[in-house]
Every structure is written in structure tokens, then in C-alpha cells.
Specification:
Elements (H helix, E strand, L loop, with lengths): L4 H9 L9 H26 L6 E7 L5 H23 L1 H6 L1 H5 L6 H21 L6 E7 L5 H23 L1 H6 L1 H6 L6 H18 L4 H26 L19 H4 L12 E2 L9 E2 L7 H19 L8 H18 L6 E4 L2 E4 H22 L1 H4 L3
């Protein structure tokens, strides 16, 4: 396994280059890039078809930087400089424990002050260059795809919070033992929590900018599935604990690689399992028994679903239909993966189920209802 990018480079090229990048984090970033691409393509396509429209926004140009803008930029610059210079001067400590450094009060005051000054000057100079003798109001046209940068930021923030909240609810016993560790750890994220909270933030921004919810949901279906597929690559490569149950069964096909059937996740980032003899470092554990590598199964399934959605999107005319199909397929895929995945179980009326199984079932039912509603009201929704 490759808990960090350095482990990956060492495996591929045999070089030891200490880098402060977690493999899982890199693939989360790549998942956002993939989602950004798919969302942008769909927003442009729907605008070209006249389904969604650009909006006019009145802005004031030629004003000097306000005190609030200078202060905000200064604070932002200080935080970055405070951490960056400390990380550079204490590089080995930072590489070994990025989370501990970033979430602590450790930093370099000089670095913070220097970058605060740079950011303040930058904000001042940028506004000063465009300053007019008399500021004026103008109308600017904002295309839907130009909202994506703002949407990605909000989706990332609220998605991360939602993923952490749902994960800690799923692992409540562990959370109450170390609440701060559970909230601020970079591992332990629940996809559905991120989907619900991040999706709600995106819908809010879209609604504020004249994009109706059903159209925005349809835009998001393929992109979210693609992002999910990319993100699951990080889960598998890093070994973040999101794996399957113990699998001691013989391979059904001799040609099937062992790592696709049963895997022990050596050097996993979750640091679960038995110590590896002769291994030195933080990530020196390997599962005692091989498990189903469910993340890699989801990489394949999610990508196939994305390809299906991407190819049918041009033929679907009724708003809400695309997202309904996405919900059905996403719910089915995750429900069956849960049958061989490690998870926490709840029991209600004698029926055991996991959080993901419950949400998967709700997604399927919601998707089916949305498809029926969209199909039944096809004519009415044409003017939606």
C-alpha cells in the first residue's frame, strides 16, 4: 500500500523522496478535478440547449480596496505564511505528521507577518491598478459554468464536514473516546455524508444564481459518480480502512490476481492489523487475514455507471430523470457492496443494518420516485 505519495514513488522508481502528501488526500483532490470537468461540460451543454441560462449581475468597478478586504487578505496570508515557513524549517516533522502540524498552534510568526504583508499589498495593488476617478456600476454576464469554482469550494467544505459527521455517527463508540481526534482526523470519511451536505451547498448556490434544483441535480449525476470512482482509487491505494470483510475463500478463477480477490493491505494508512517484521516508520501494519478489496470493486462499478450515465444524458429530456437514474444505480451499487464490507451495524426491531445500507435503500426509493414523477409530469416539466 501507499499511505503517502513518497511510498508510491519509492515503489515505482526506487527513490526515497520525502513529500508531505497523503495518497488519499491527493485522490480526493483529483476526484474534485474530475467532478469539476464533468459538471462544467454538462453546464455548458445545457446552456447551449437553452435549458439553463446566464444571469446578469450588477457590480461596482473602479473602487479602491476596502479595509475589510485588506484585513481578510492579511489574515489569510498570515495563516498560510505561519504554517508554510514552519513546515519548511521543520520539514521532517511536517512530512512525518502533516495533520499534527496543520491542526496545531505550531507555526512561524515571521513567516505569517511576511505573507500577511504580501497579501495585503497584493489586494491593494490589484484594486489600485483598476481604480477609476469615479467608481461606476456595470452589468456583467455570469454563465452557469463560471459558478463552478465557487461551487467546488463550498462542496469541499460542507462535504468534508458532512463526511466527518456521518463517519463519527457510524463509529460512535470510537468518537466518544476521542471527539477532537475524530473530528479533525483527515481519515475516516463517509461518502454519503459528503454527498448530502456538499450537494446541499451546491444546490443552494445554484438556486441563488437562477439554476433550478432539478436541472442542477441532473447536471451532477454523472460528475458525482465519476468523482466517486476516482476517490475510491485513493481509498484502495492508501488502505484507509474502507475495505471488506475477511475473505478466506479460494479464488473462483485461477487467472484472477490475488489483490482483486483477497488482500491484506500492508502499510495501510489506517495502521490496522499486525506489525510488519522489519518495517520502520508510522505505517507498518498488515491485516492478519485477507479481506475483500471493496474499494477497487467500487472504482470499477462507479466508473461503469458513470459511462452509462454520460452516454444516455443527451437522450433524457425530462428534468429530474437523470438524477433519479443516478440515485437508483448508486443505491444498488452501494447496497450490494455493503454485504461484503466492514461496517458498523444498527439493530431495529431485530433487523441488523448499516448506515450505508439504510441510506442506499433510501436513495433507491427516492430515485425510483423521482423517475416516476419525472416521467409522469414530462409535459408539465418542459417549461420548468
Amino acid at each position: 500500500m501507499f499511505p503517502t505519495v513518497s511510498h508510491f514513488l519509492s515503489y515505482l522508481f526506487g527513490i526515497n523522496l520525502p513529500l508531505p502528501f497523503n495518497t488519499f488526500g491527493v485522490f480526493v483532490a483529483l476526484a474534485f478535478v474530475a467532478g469539476y470537468w464533468a459538471f462544467t461540460k454538462e453546464l455548458k451543454r445545457k446552456e447551449a440547449l437553452g435549458i439553463i441560462h446566464p444571469i446578469k449581475r450588477r457590480v461596482t468597478i473602479g473602487k479602491p480596496a476596502s479595509a475589510l478586504e485588506l484585513i481578510t487578505n492579511g489574515i489569510f496570508g498570515f495563516i498560510i505564511g505561519y504554517k508554510i515557513l514552519y513546515a519548511i524549517l521543520n520539514y521532517k516533522v511536517f512530512v512525518d505528521d502533516q495533520q499534527g502540524v496543520l491542526l496545531s498552534t505550531k507555526g512561524n510568526m515571521l513567516g505569517g507577518l511576511i505573507l500577511a504583508a504580501v497579501f495585503i499589498y497584493w489586494a491593494y495593488k490589484e484594486k489600485d491598478t483598476a481604480k477609476l476617478p469615479q467608481p461606476k456600476e456595470v452589468d456583467v454576464v455570469v454563465h452557469p459554468y463560471e459558478l463552478m469554482s465557487n461551487m467546488v469550494v463550498w462542496a469541499a467544505v460542507w462535504g468534508f464536514l458532512g463526511a466527518k459527521i456521518f463517519d463519527n455517527l457510524e463509529h460512535w463508540d470510537t468518537f466518544i473516546q476521542d471527539p477532537l481526534g475524530g473530528l479533525f482526523a483527515f481519515t475516516g470519511l463517509t461518502f454519503y455524508g459528503g454527498l448530502i451536505c456538499g450537494g446541499a451547498a451546491v444546490l443552494y448556490i445554484a438556486r441563488k444564481n437562477g439554476i433550478k434544483p432539478l436541472h442542477m441535480l441532473d447536471v451532477g449525476g454523472p460528475g458525482m459518480m465519476l468523482a466517486y470512482s476516482v476517490g475510491r482509487i485513493g481509498c484502495h491505494l492508501a488502505g484507509d480502512g474502507d475495505w471488506g470483510i475477511v475473505n478466506l475463500n479460494p479464488k473462483p478463477f485461477t487467472w484472477l490476481p490475488d489483490w482483486l480477490w483477497a488482500y491484506t493491505y500492508p502499510n495501510n494508512v489506517a495502521r490496522e492489523g499486525d506489525p510488519i517484521a522489519g518495517c520502520v516508520g508510522r505505517y507498518c501494519n498488515e491485516l492478519a487475514n485477507p479481506v475483500y478489496p471493496t474499494p477497487i470493486y467500487e472504482v470499477v462499478l462507479a466508473f461503469l455507471i458513470f459511462l452509462f450515465l454520460w452516454n444516455i444524458r443527451k437522450y433524457i429530456k425530462s428534468p429530474g430523470m437523470m438524477f433519479g437514474i443516478y440515485l437508483i444505480l448508486a443505491g444498488v451499487e452501494r447496497f450490494f457492496i455493503e454485504l461484503i464490507r466492514v461496517n458498523s451495524k444498527y439493530t431495529v426491531a431485530g433487523i441488523p443494518f448499516s448506515q450505508a445500507e439504510l441510506i442506499s435503500l433510501l436513495l433507491f426509493i427516492s430515485g425510483l420516485a423521482l423517475v416516476i414523477y419525472s416521467n409522469k409530469n414530462r409535459e408539465k416539466l418542459k417549461s420548468y
